Fold each of these.
Amino acid sequence: MSARKIIIDTDPGQDDAVAILLALASPDELEVLGITAVAGNVPLALTQKNARIICELAGRRDMAVYAGCDAPLQRALVTAEHVHGKTGLDGPDLPDPTMALTDGHGVDFIVEILRAHASGTVTLCPLGPLTNIAAAFVKAPDIVSRVQEIVLMGGAYFAVGNITPTAEFNIYVDPQAADIVFKSGAPITVVPLDVTHKALVTKPRNDAFRAIGTPVGTAVAQMTDFFERFDREKYASPGAPLHDPCVTAYLIRPDLFTGRFVNVEIETTSPLTLGMTVADWWGVTDRAPNATFLGDVDSDGLFTLLTERLARL
Ligand SMILES: [Ca+2]
């Protein structure tokens, strides 16, 4: 079987970094066509730079990295330095990138790639706010039907919210973009907090990253040590959730995850619940299903996969 072609749309972010590294470490399963940065965890100037830092850490200076949208479609940008630190990649001391950004806009790259490849052969992997994806769909509606699948990290249902009581960060930052994507008709798989809050970086799992003993293993250990370090107290859990790598892990090992094909709609107006992913898990409405909403993960299997693959870089 040939490797699945993907575009990673991202706002690094330590967990984005680990998701990218997992993809780059898995060329038999995943062919990364390019990386598009978006404003989210930190502003675009940092997310596009961080994406290049991660490519260089992985020895992939050849990777195409594009800057995309620097603000949500309609709202002012909300960032999360309280989680990720000032740079977005706090933890390890990684050098500034020497590879250049690729010329052109990330949104145009998404449009061009989907038009250039056979329909149904390119998967989009959004790991941040859905601004770039929605902007591409609005600019070029013909590409929607060409998307093989969108596998995104975002949303929450039983796990409720992490930025407001009802909203997950990525969806909350750009709910209008999320609404466009969820209504697009493209096949969608959602990796919500319901899953990522079961993917906890416990001390033994962090030790396993460090024990890889390579620059990548050490950096991942330092990043996952820093990232969401408040969460152990916030959620009273034995480790912090590792969100975005669940997306690339799902593409490599879907058997580690379970979920339901349900209707998911985005709240775009209520001041109380803005950005909520209203998932009809119990099928109590007649709204048509539009997304596979994952609910569980074999977390031991996930971390075994991560540790084994990261050791290849
Ligand atoms: Ca992210």
Amino acid sequence: MLLRHTPEEITERKALTINPAKTCQPIGAMYAALGIHGCLPHSHGSQGCCAYHRSTLTRHYKEPISASTSSFTEGSSVFGGSANMLQAINNIFTVYKPEVIAVHTTCLSETIGDDLPQMKKKALDEGKIPEGKYVISASTPSYAGSHVTGFSSMVASMAGMATPTGKKNGKVNIIPGWVEPADMEEIKRLVNLVGVKSILFPDTSGVLNGPLSGEYKMFPDGGTTVAELQSTGDSIGTLALGEWCSADAAHYLDKAHKVPCTILDMPFGLKATDRFIDALRNLAGVNVPDEIGLERGQLVDMISDMHQYLYKKRVALAGDPDQLIAMTEFLVSIDMCPVHIVTGTPGKKFGKRIKELTKDLGYEVNVKAKGDLFLLHQWIKNEPVDLLIGNTYGKYIARDEDLPFVRWGFPILDRQGHQYFPTVGYKGGLRLLEKILGVLMDRKDRDDPESKFELVL
Ligand code: SF4
């Protein structure tokens, strides 16, 4: 009972977060930057911030995460980090030779008012950025937003690399949002199957789910190349998956370079995947390929075969807005009952969207943006659920309340597989369903009396 002090009685808290349902903005910026081929993320702040961000990503992806830091000392904290930044840019291009340095700020450098665009200009003027190499930046103080907004800001900076030539490239930009490397692979597979030429950015497949080859590569083979990022301004359109993670970059390309954009939900579950495939089909002007139709049919088959175990099961969810919106729609579509939903990321639109998706359920869903896991736990104590879905930190609630628990989201620190098995698309839907059914049936096997202990479920 690690959370035994969580009281049932809910009191309003304005200035206190307990067990946050989010993490630092820079972690999102760092993850996004790793989706550029040959990119070294750079943390403009103290070494401690960078160490924390790297270790969180390393623990989730089980891969070494390379990133550099401006290594603020007391002096730079008082007088500004410009000298450290310029020295860092020089050192990094000389020693590690990346194609791109993706700089994100931290609480400290933002609080003292460091001006990254001005530092970048100085680095250019002083010849510290070699010809054909790039420095991009995102403002990511962690006293605002969350890892999701940090991710979005860095993706928008990538869009800033677009350099239109005036000649269309016949491709569609696909911005996948913060999904796993395996999800990015799956999105590319679906896009190829429909026959759409695309530029996916960022793309961490082949970066954070690579093989053990015995050979260390500072910059793995995967990632969106600089040439591709520059070409995004010549694309015929953009599909942005997830309002929170991807819309800013898509809107930028639309506004700055007249690349029209469509904002879709992340393709988790049946309906959101249907909309994604439909958008691709329309772009390509083709019918849905049989292979994709088959995968959809398999997902529908599993849903109908197992419906009795899913029907009316009450679910609590914690995670990031884009994922939660798609997951809520999926759960409702398979007759499960989401009852408590919390994200740590701010945004009024979140609650509104969840209310829309759950309006026909016949009860009021508890939903909170900028909420925390403490509140979720209190809600569960007051109105118990049959299943909890969330990141690793949910395991404390699951243990205390003796709940079946599906790990899904970021971070997952105590299980494996999320890098390798997608949960997007129809195949991903099968995996999600398998995970949900697995914990529900394990619970049934544990709790059923011997007279009902069935071999075949
Ligand atoms: S919250 Fe701020 S100070 Fe703490 S690790 Fe994140 S960026 Fe650094």
